[in-house]
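Need a sequence for this fold. Nothing fancy.
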């Protein structure tokens, strides 16, 4: 939503007090921290261009299409001079509990962020509420502001802005990290024309640790702070619409939607905290469910069960493709073979390809690498 600025710029003392209120309101709305940054991301532009030039964005054409617009918030909303950056924790269980499902025999692993309600809706609604609180406060001084809210929904360098806003630092896996809560949180932004006082960045604390790089199943973190999305399991299971390259299928294991390995093994995530929002409560037992159970869902069941979930957007066909790989990587089982063979005749060509791969693995009696 946008609002036009029809009054003079608020006084400095008003803005200073407003920042304190914004941070307080943010906590009330379920955010764990709010920070303020300016819009200068010129230091990030060369890195973005180099990443795109290497083709690391894969088939995410929108990354190249938007180009440097990602590093220029004022091009998204003319007049923007500040970004209010917010983070919101999403864990409904602690990382130690999640580890028990990773590569578990016959179980499906779904990235922890997708176990509850679609975060896009949750964050955008709460960011809008925060923006309206700001609007109401300004109205008392006959002021207003122009703003837009985002959460992973526009071409914007969220981690770079959050780092500038002092709510964490960019880890070697390229995610935002904090000493207090690790990395299990969503990011969102309010772009505004209010010249709010900015926060200072925090120092990075990764040091010589490269655990995230070492544990990545497909070696997607090709260098510190550099991810080749074409190798990333999150990209392969979510963003990639076609066939998953054979070279990565065994490494995917039982990860049927996204991957958390770089977070699960990050030392800072021993400080991870559970969310207080019921929106992120685990749905349909997705934190402890068998691959075969999910594979048996028809399209109508998928649509019903995944309504309101981030998983919904990949559709039933990709879901079946991913599950076929998970079943191929599971310990050899007559039950799995029967289920794969039963689906094969009516599956789409894309899913059939992955079912045949899974059947070959199952019949050969192979187990995940």
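Here you go.
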């Amino acid at each position: 939503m946008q609002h036009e600025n029809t009054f003079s710029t608020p006084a400095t003392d008003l803005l200073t007090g407003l920042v304190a209120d914004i941070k307080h309101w943010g906590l009330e709305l379920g955010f764990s921290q709010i920070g303020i940054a300016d819009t200068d991301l010129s230091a990030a532009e060369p890195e973005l261009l180099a990443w795109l030039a290497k083709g690391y964005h894969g088939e995410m054409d929108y990354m190249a299409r938007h180009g440097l617009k990602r590093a220029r918030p004022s091009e998204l909303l003319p007049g923007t001079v500040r970004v209010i950056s917010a983070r919101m924790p999403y864990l409904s269980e602690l990382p130690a509990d999640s580890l028990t499902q990773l590569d578990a025999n016959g179980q499906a692993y779904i990235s922890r962020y997708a176990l509850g309600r679609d975060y896009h809706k949750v964050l955008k609604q709460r960011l809008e509420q925060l923006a309206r609180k700001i609007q109401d406060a300004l109205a008392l001084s006959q002021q207003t502001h122009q703003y837009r809210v985002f959460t992973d929904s526009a071409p914007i360098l969220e981690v770079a802005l959050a780092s500038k806003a002092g709510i964490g630092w960019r880890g070697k896996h390229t995610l935002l990290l904090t000493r207090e809560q690790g990395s299990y949180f969503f990011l969102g932004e309010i772009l505004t024309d209010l010249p709010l006082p900015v926060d200072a960045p925090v120092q990075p604390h990764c040091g010589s640790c490269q655990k995230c790089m070492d544990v990545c199943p497909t070696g997607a973190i090709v260098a510190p702070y550099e991810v080749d999305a074409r190798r990333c399991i999150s990209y392969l299971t979510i963003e990639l619409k076609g066939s998953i390259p054979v070279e990565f299928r065994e490494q995917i294991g039982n990860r049927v939607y996204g991957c958390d390995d770089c977070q699960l093994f990050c030392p800072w995530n021993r400080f991870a905290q559970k969310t207080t929002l019921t929106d992120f409560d685990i749905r349909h037992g997705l934190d402890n469910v068998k691959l075969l159970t999910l594979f048996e869902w028809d399209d109508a069941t998928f649509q019903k069960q995944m309504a309101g979930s981030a998983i919904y957007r990949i559709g039933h066909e990709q879901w079946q493709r991913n599950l076929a790989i998970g079943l191929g990587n599971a310990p050899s089982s007559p039950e799995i073979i029967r289920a794969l063979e039963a689906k094969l005749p009516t599956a789409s060509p894309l899913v059939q390809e992955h079912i045949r791969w899974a059947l070959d693995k199952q019949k050969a009696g192979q187990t995940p690498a």
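For context: The radius of gyration is 22 Å.
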